[in-house]
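Contributing: when you submit paired examples, paste them exactly as shown. First protein:
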Amino acid sequence: HVLLREPRIEGFLASAYGREPSGKEVAGYLAPLQLPGTPGALLDIVNTSTSTPPQTLERIDSLKIPVLMIWGRHDTWVPLEDGKQLEALLGESRLAVIEDAAHCPMETHWQAFNQLLLEHLEAQR
């Protein structure tokens, strides 16, 4: 499938990472996408996915579930302002921002991401 070729994946990752991906990163994403049936499954996901308005998440707040939102300051896919709105909406939430990251801090800044996550989990004990 033309959308699942190396140049497309490279562009996709560059946008998500906020930097050029390495060849290893591109290959890591490309390999599973080339499995039989994957292009059709991805199209099904895109065609059937929906967006949830933030206001519907107010129900979560009533459950008093501690929520950690980890955001990249340079995320162009989901703006930091959206995270700030969610933090204000959910009383039991914390917005942590990784300064040099874009949309995928769990991949590009995994050390900082993991540290924030571990601190959050430890605080719940």
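Second protein:
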Amino acid sequence: MANAIKITTDGTVTAETVDGLQDFQKHVEGWVELIYADDSHHAIWLNEEGKVNGMPINHTAHQLVHSMITGLSPQDVIVGPVLITGPLAADGEHYEAPTAEMLARFDLA
């Protein structure tokens, strides 16, 4: 289980509770791809086949992800709905919540 921030392609940002792989897949509308932010405090969940399947650009998530991961190519576009969680918890089965600062950024604190 994880508390997450969901960013949709229309810019809607909500707090979500995600319970297991199938729930992550439901939220990103397909197979999940996980990338970690440079700060080691956030995990970013994307649709692995979003570009191939022609999902729309997620402008809000695109700007955020590019600010959080310095190694991404400027041409690497973020598409589809995106989830942001904290890192893998100590139990190895759950993900921590996003930081208070990240929640406050979207008025979700």
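If you have annotations for the second protein, write them as plain sentences, like these:
Strands lie at 2-7, 13-18, 32-36, 43-47, 82-85.
The chain has a mean pLDDT of 95.
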